[in-house]
Amino acid sequence: MHTDNQSPVVIYESADTTVEVRLDTDQETVWLNLQQLADLFGRDKSVISRHLKNTFRDAELDREAVVAKNATTAADGKTYQVDYYNLDAIISVGYRVSSSRATRFRQWATRTLRQHLTQGWTLNRQRFETNARELEAAMALVRKAAQSPALDTTCGRGLVDIVTRYAQTFLLLQRYDEGLLTEPQAQPGGRLPSLFEARTALDALKADLMARGEATDLFARDRGEGLDSLLGNLDQSVFGEPAYPTVESKAAHLLYFVVKNHPFSDGNKRSAAYLFVDFLHRNGRLMTTAGDPVINDVGLAALTLLVAESNPANKETMIRLIMNMLAGAR
């Protein structure tokens, strides 16, 4: 391991000491060398070194995981490789030397890291959104150029169509990868099917699939009152306001909950995809204003599988992904 020479350095000050601290926002930790540890805890370097050796000897920490080499220029002008110790090692030594000092330092380090990480996220988001607006503006120009009589070859028009059609998808996936997805501007309202309507639609799908040998009688068979409860939850109000106030939020949660809650004995993913499309159709959102489908069969299958394989801890991210996809395809 090694630390980055460009890592920001901040000053830790307490009532009795001042120490320069190197931040590592990528690994969400801080680094101090042996002398800085001695300054922090008011002990001789030999004492700190002994505690570190005992920490590694007792297998409390893995040396490879908490120690990093960093090139440091000394007073004599020469560059030396110096060992730096991360926050886990600092706190471990602190408990062996002075836990109150370690606690104060941990609180300070956590607070400082959080501030830097938040600021970095904000700056990254601002930079990304600026780039996204520039790309979208460029795509608008490309789209306009595509109407030019000069671009009359099938190949040329096809390339322009691909670039403009999928530019928004690329932006959406980048936002997803970088954790920058937010809820989009969405269409208020959205009528959910009644239990009878949903059940009738699923029964028709089941009959069709069974006729083709692609499902058994277990397909979409209710497990208790799972579907009724699910639809009721989606239609509930909180303090007089709809809990899911837009077409996009209702559609996204409908797909997610049917996949994840398993209200049927079999065929939950297929049922979820069908109810998702059925809901969009009922609310006039299955096709874009240009007459293209909001999502094709391959995309729907991929999205449903993505929801199925997603970690429940990432639920809100998945919901925002689906909502952004729908909002961007009007």
TrEMBL record:
Residues 197-324 form the Fido domain. It comes from the Bacteria. Pfam families: Fic, Virulence_RhuM. PANTHER family: CYTOPLASMIC PROTEIN, CYTOPLASMIC PROTEIN-RELATED. This is Fido domain-containing protein. It comes from Azoarcus taiwanensis.
